[in-house]
Amino acid sequence: MATREITLENIEDTITAGGIVLLDFWADWCPPCRAFGPVFEKSSQAHPEAVFGKIDTEAQQQLAASFGITSIPTLAVFRDGIMVFNQPGALAGPQLEALYQQVAALDMDEVRAKIAAAQQAQQGQQQEARA
């Protein structure tokens, strides 16, 4: 599947649909973004089972701000609705492929357990701070 445009209107449905979702935050005036675009597109064609979304930070400023985007290109990757990667900088094709394979190999039950443990620890610290 080719890349698709992601907007404030379709971001939540895109992420919560499950599976692997890669989001490329970019702008037309950004040379590294333009260099990464074909790499991202080629990967989208190699992995039709995943969603490859492009977010134009100029047109979608509110969406970019909600993700805290301060540098572009930035790649955010979700698996089963959970953000598992978020990093600025253009990746080369082999780097993007290696990242995709790592995300595909994640044990999501383990990821969810780690998130739950971290949230419990944070709640415990907050309760101790109030006492």
From TrEMBL:
It comes from the Bacteria. Residues 1-105 form the Thioredoxin domain. InterPro entries: Thioredoxin-like_sf (IPR036249), Thioredoxin_CS (IPR017937), Thioredoxin_domain (IPR013766). CDD domains: TRX_family (cd02947). One of its GO terms (cellular component) is cytosol. The keyword Disulfide bond applies. Keywords: Disulfide bond. One of its GO terms (molecular function) is protein-disulfide reductase activity. It holds the Pfam family Thioredoxin. The keyword Zinc-finger does not apply. Gene3D superfamilies: Glutaredoxin (3.40.30.10). This is Thioredoxin. It comes from Serinibacter salmoneus.
